[in-house]
Design brief:
single chain; 382 residues; alpha+beta; Aminopeptidase; Alpha-Beta Plaits; 2 domains; 19 strands
């Protein structure tokens, strides 16, 4: 692959990273990508009501399309300093790998196809692939945090089972092949009490004390090692002042498991603990704020074999993995899907996030190989 395409992808990733895009506030970044899709002469470019951006690269035949997506949103608030720094072959910056580089790689694929068309003497301003089916590119919203994969749900609702495959791009984790969707259930649990003055009404129940006691009960639940399962209290809210018996407090709870059965069992235990914690002056409520479904395709599925071979062809040993990504949605509906990384990196979801530039060319070659391989007879017949 031409080095200038790789450097252009990197520069585009930085430009995307400089646009704030907290979950539920992706409009500015979506607008940027929408303009790029139009400038690259994709067909059927559109933005839906939740700010997913779509564009189509027409193929030469009528085989089922391939949908390639990358999420627009980041975990960082609008106020975060998006300064980028360069250290040797690394670029540091909040969200540079998760997922600015993933979004930039969508457009990098366009550039690759244009370059190939140019070498074959075709008109590069009217992009089409040499492949026997369409490629749909999607920059979607709502992958992070409480976005609950809302963007990808809309994507899969739109295309359903028509695509030959869904390919989800993440900027980092090159070498990982996510073919299993990690099940996640998230709750907001709230305690309410009459409250009062810390001295005058001492002895009344405090919502903060009660929520703290609930946390102790939850973290005492048995969590299996196999299948791997996890429970985490990530956020605590509550209280009015230092000398007030808190009338309200809440937590945000994250439950995860490789197994739908184990997750369901843990969910039942958590809901029972919450219900049993109610007292005459202490009322608990529990609300689902996130539900990422379990799903998977076999590690021997043709799509996964193709992804493995594509990595091996560029000198990378593939690692078959499970994760909570946009791929959860098509996988949970029994549709062929895989999540791929574009380069290596580290510090995800921190201000010290970085990507390594040296392996991006391998990541792009992997992506091109997978896309082209999906349209081959061997994949389609498998």
């Amino acid at each position: 692959m031409e080095s200038n395409i790789i450097s252009d992808i990197v520069n585009l990733a930085v430009a995307i990273q400089q646009i704030p895009a907290p979950t539920f506030s992706e409009e500015q970044r979506a607008t940027f990508v929408h303009k790029r899709f139009l400038n690259e002469h994709l067909l059927d470019v559109s933005v839906d009501e939740i700010w997913n951006v779509y564009g189509r690269i027409p193929g030469l035949g009528d085989m089922p399309p391939v949908v390639i997506s990358a999420h627009l949103d980041t975990v960082f608030p609008q106020s975060i300093d998006l300064k980028v720094s360069y250290v040797e072959d690394r670029i540091f910056g909040p969200g540079i790998g998760d997922n600015s580089l993933g979004v930039a790689s969508l457009i990098g694929l366009i550039w690759h196809l244009k370059r190939r068309a140019s070498r074959r003497g075709r008109e590069v301003n009217h992009i089409s692939s040499h492949l026997p089916g369409d490629i749909w590119l999607v920059a979607n919203v709502g992958e992070e945090g409480l976005g609950d994969l809302v963007g990808m749900r809309a994507v899969v609702d739109r295309f359903a089972n028509r695509p030959a495959a869904y390919i989800v791009l993440e900027g980092m984790a090159l070498g990982q092949i996510y073919h299993r969707g990690l099940g996640v259930r998230r709750y907001q649990i709230t305690a309410k009490t009459p409250g009062g003055h810390s001295w005058v009404d001492y002895g009344r129940p405090s919502a903060i004390h009660e929520i703290a006691a609930l946390i102790n009960r939850l973290t005492s639940l048995p969590i299996p090692d196999e299948p791997r399962t996890a429970l985490n209290v990530g956020i605590i809210h509550g209280g009015t002042s230092v000398n007030t018996i808190a009338p309200e407090a809440s937590i945000e709870l994250d439950l995860r498991s490789e197994s739908a059965h184990s997750l369901s069992s843990l969910v039942s235990q958590v809901e029972m603990v919450v219900s049993e914690s109610n007292l005459p002056e202490v009322k608990f409520s529990i609300e689902v704020i996130g539900d990422r479904p379990v799903g998977e395709i076999s590690s021997d599925h043709p799509l996964i074999r193709l992804a493995k071979h594509s990595l091996e062809d560029v000198g990378i040993s593939p690692y078959i993995n499970i994760g909570s990504t946009d791929a959860n949605i098509p996988l949970s509906r029994g549709l062929p899907a895989v999540c791929l990384g574009m380069t290596t990196g580290g510090g995800a979801h921190t201000v010290n996030e970085y990507i390594s530039l040296g392996s991006l060319e391998q990541g792009m070659k992997q992506l091109i190989s997978v896309v082209e391989g999906i349209f081959t007879t061997s994949y389609s017949a498998a």
